[in-house]
């Protein structure tokens, strides 16, 4: 594949650019460089620290750098909220990555799921078996897992048709002008930083509903929200709230770190989940309380 370097990557090291382009690890990018498989403006480049320049063309081979098939790891901890023959609902702790990927080859939720529910290995995509939706590493809360191919197809269809409900609690900076609203703005990869998402006219449709449950004014002004996803884009709530000037408290990737209130991760929790059972058609509804670390933050506010 051949890519032209945009302004966002001007001055970046070539190994980092390759990793971003291919979605691989830095180690894999260096291996490609060492093998002589990378060309810049037609010439082989092996120096990993070389800086890219705007307009240069970088050529990499068409290689499969997808993560290996995950293996079971019984040491991964998570709480099962519900399990039957078709679906599993879990409470994902903050700090746990959902599935293997670049930089996270193991010790993910999927590795833990395979240890408890090995039958999901043949459900869905091999690198992310059973996974029909995701939560960011720093987000805690409810996640539904498909246990059979039938359940997988059905749940994916419900999510695509916006028939499943996913509700979140979020703590955002500032006071909102209205008690509720909708952020309707497409989301795509950031032109300035390819590791981030951003509101972009070239992005995919994205809609987030929010309701202000309470506004705190001491020692800082922050608002406690209930948010509902109508779509499921990467970092959607985080990007949308930042775009309207109310980033999530503790979200250092999207301008959510400010003086006066310290949080070790984004203050975001997947609190409610509702979907139709893929086998029985019954409505399945779940709700989780806030985890202790987020409650501790609220206890400092008035």
Separation of the first and last Cα atoms: 55 Å
Average pLDDT reading: 94
CATH level 3 topology of the largest domain: Pseudouridine synthase
What amount of the residues lies in strands?
25-35%
CATH architecture type of the largest domain: 2-Layer Sandwich
InterPro entries: PsdUridine_synth_cat_dom_sf, PsdUridine_synth_RluA-like_CS, PsdUridine_synth_RluC/D, PsdUridine_synth_RsuA/RluA, RluA_PseudoU_synthase, S4_RNA-bd, S4_RNA-bd_sf
Family: Belongs to the pseudouridine synthase RluA family.
Region (Disordered): 185-204
Keywords: Isomerase
Description:
The chain has 302 residues and is of the alpha+beta class. The chain folds into three domains: 2-59, RNA-binding S4 domain (Structural Genomics Hypothetical 15.5 Kd Protein In mrcA-pckA Intergenic Region, Chain A, Roll), CATH 3.10.290; 66-161, Pseudouridine synthase (2-Layer Sandwich), CATH 3.30.2350.10; 168-269, Pseudouridine synthase. Helix content is 18%, strand content 26%. The protein has six helices and 15 strands. The protein has helices at 14-22, 26-34, 109-116, 149-160, 236-243, 292-298; strands at residues 2-4, 39-40, 43-44, 57-59, 79-83, 87-92, 140-146, 165-173, 180-184, 187-189, 197-199, 207-216, 222-229, 268-276, 283-287. The strands form three sheets. Strands 5, 6, 7, 8, 9, 12, 13, 14 and 15 form a nine-stranded mixed beta sheet that branches. A hairpin with a 5-residue loop joins strand 12 (207-216) and strand 13 (222-229). Helix 1 crosses helix 2. The protein is globular and about 60 Å long. The termini are far apart. Belongs to the pseudouridine synthase RluA family. Keywords: Isomerase. InterPro entries: PsdUridine_synth_cat_dom_sf, PsdUridine_synth_RluA-like_CS, PsdUridine_synth_RluC/D, PsdUridine_synth_RsuA/RluA, RluA_PseudoU_synthase, S4_RNA-bd, S4_RNA-bd_sf. It holds the Pfam family S4. Residues 12-73 form the RNA-binding S4 domain.
